[in-house]
C-alpha cells in the first residue's frame, strides 16, 4: 500500500452530509457547488481540482484519473489486486501558454499553434541579428547531401535474427507482452464493443416504448386552440420536459416487444419486468449516458494500452538485438 500525500486527509467513506443529507464528494467531503471536478476511474468519486492541488488549466490534459486513495490502494481495484494505478496525462501542446492536448501524430494541438511555434523560433534567430532565410540557405549550401545519404549504408551489420534464430520467439518477456496485447484485441475490446452495442439496442427499445406511451399525449398538447388562455397554456406545456420512463434495467435485457410493454404499463407502478418506470428518477439520472461514456472511455484506454505494449515490445526487441551485437563484438575481440 502506498503513502498518501501530506496535503491529503485520511480516507473517509462518508457519502452524505449528516446535517443536510446532501451528497458529498472529494477529499473535502462537501456538496457539489459547481466548481470544476474530475471523476476517479477507480472509485467513481468526484474531486475538486483545487483540493487536489492541480491547476484548473490542466483539465483537458487528464486522460485517466485516479484519486490519491486509489493510487495508495485504499479504494478502487488496486485495493484487492495490489496493482496500484497512476493518473495518465495527455501530451501538452508544445506552445508554452497552451494547455490543450496534442493532436494525433503531432507535438501541437493544431496547425495554427505549430506555425506559431515555428514562427517564434524564426523570431528568436532574427532577434539575435541574423537573417533566418540566410541561415537556412548557408546550412543547405554547407551540407554534403551525398555523405548524408550514405550514412549507415556501409558496414551494415548482419540482422540479429540471422545471427540468433528464434531470438524474439524464445524471449519470455516478449511472449508476455504479446499475450497481453492479444488478450486486449481478442477478448477485452470485443467484449466492451459488444456491451456498447447492447446498450445502443436497449436504448432504441426504451425510446420506442416512450414514444408509444407518451407520443399521443404530446400531440394532444400541441393540438389547435382558439382562446387566448389556451394558447398561453400551450406555450407553457411546450416549455416543459416531455414525459418519459427512466428505462433503467441492471442487465439491459429486452423481455418483450415495445408494444407489449406499453400495453402492460401502469403509471402507478414504479417497475415492470425489472425496468424502472419512474418518470423522474433521481436514482438513475442519465444512467444511459454515464454507461456509454464509461464504455467509450474504456475503449480509448485499451487503445492507449495497445500503443504502450507495442512500444514496450519495440524496446525489448532493441535490447535483445544489442545483446546479440555485444556478444558478437566480444567473440571478435577474443
UniProtKB/TrEMBL annotation:
Lipoprotein as UniProt keyword: no
Tell me one GO biological process term. Answer: positive regulation of DNA-templated transcription
Q: Where is the PHD-type domain?
A: 23-73
Name the principal localization, coarsely classed: nucleus
Q: Which Gene Ontology cellular-component terms appear in the entry?
A: Set1C/COMPASS complex
Key words of the record: Metal-binding, Nucleus, Zinc, Zinc-finger
Q: Which residues lie within the region annotated Disordered? A: 218-244
Question: Which Pfam families has this protein been placed in?
Answer: PHD
Under InterPro entries, the record lists: Spp1/CFP1, Zinc_finger_PHD-type_CS, Znf_FYVE_PHD, Znf_PHD, Znf_PHD-finger, Znf_RING/FYVE/PHD
Q: Where is the composition biased (Basic residues)?
A: 231-241
The molecular function terms in GO held by this entry are: zinc ion binding
SUPFAM superfamilies given for it? FYVE/PHD zinc finger
Q: Where in the cell is it found?
A: Nucleus
Q: PANTHER family, from UniProt? A: CXXC-TYPE ZINC FINGER PROTEIN 1 (PTHR46174)
Q: What is this protein called?
A: LAQU0S01e06326g1_1
Q: Which organism is it from?
A: Lachancea quebecensis
Amino acid at each position: 500500500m502506498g503513502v498518501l500525500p501530506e496535503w491529503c486527509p485520511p480516507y473517509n467513506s462518508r457519502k452524505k452530509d449528516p446535517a443536510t443529507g446532501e451528497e458529498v464528494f472529494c477529499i473535502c467531503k462537501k456538496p457539489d457547488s459547481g466548481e470544476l471536478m474530475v471523476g476517479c476511474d477507480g472509485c467513481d468519486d468526484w474531486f475538486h481540482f483545487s483540493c487536489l492541488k492541480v491547476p484548473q488549466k490542466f483539465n483537458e490534459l487528464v486522460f485517466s484519473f485516479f484519486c490519491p486513495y486509489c493510487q495508495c490502494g485504499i479504494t478502487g481495484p488496486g485495493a484487492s489486486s495490489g496493482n496500484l494505478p497512476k493518473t495518465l496525462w495527455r501530451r501538452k501542446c508544445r506552445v508554452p501558454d497552451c494547455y490543450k492536448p496534442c493532436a494525433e501524430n503531432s507535438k501541437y494541438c493544431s496547425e495554427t499553434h505549430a506555425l506559431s511555434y515555428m514562427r517564434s523560433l524564426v523570431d528568436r534567430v532574427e532577434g539575435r541579428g541574423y537573417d533566418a532565410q540566410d541561415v537556412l540557405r548557408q546550412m543547405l549550401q554547407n551540407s554534403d547531401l551525398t555523405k548524408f545519404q550514405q550514412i549507415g549504408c556501409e558496414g551494415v551489420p548482419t540482422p540479429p535474427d540471422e545471427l540468433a534464430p528464434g531470438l524474439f520467439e524464445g524471449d519470455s518477456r516478449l511472449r508476455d507482452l504479446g499475450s497481453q496485447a492479444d488478450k486486449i484485441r481478442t477478448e477485452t475490446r470485443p467484449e466492451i464493443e459488444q456491451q456498447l452495442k447492447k446498450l445502443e439496442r436497449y436504448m432504441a427499445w426504451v425510446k420506442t416504448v416512450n414514444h408509444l406511451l407518451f407520443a399521443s399525449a404530446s400531440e394532444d398538447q400541441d393540438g389547435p386552440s382558439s382562446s387566448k388562455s389556451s394558447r398561453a397554456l400551450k406555450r407553457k406545456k411546450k416549455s416543459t420536459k416531455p414525459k418519459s420512463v427512466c428505462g433503467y434495467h441492471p442487465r439491459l435485457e429486452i423481455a418483450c416487444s415495445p408494444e407489449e410493454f406499453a400495453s402492460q404499463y401502469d403509471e402507478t407502478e414504479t417497475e415492470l419486468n425489472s425496468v424502472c418506470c419512474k418518470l423522474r428518477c433521481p436514482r438513475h439520472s442519465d444512467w444511459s449516458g454515464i454507461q456509454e461514456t464509461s464504455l467509450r472511455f474504456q475503449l480509448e484506454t485499451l487503445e492507449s494500452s495497445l500503443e504502450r505494449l507495442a512500444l514496450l515490445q519495440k524496446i525489448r526487441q532493441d535490447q535483445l538485438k544489442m545483446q546479440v551485437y555485444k556478444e558478437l563484438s566480444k567473440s571478435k575481440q577474443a
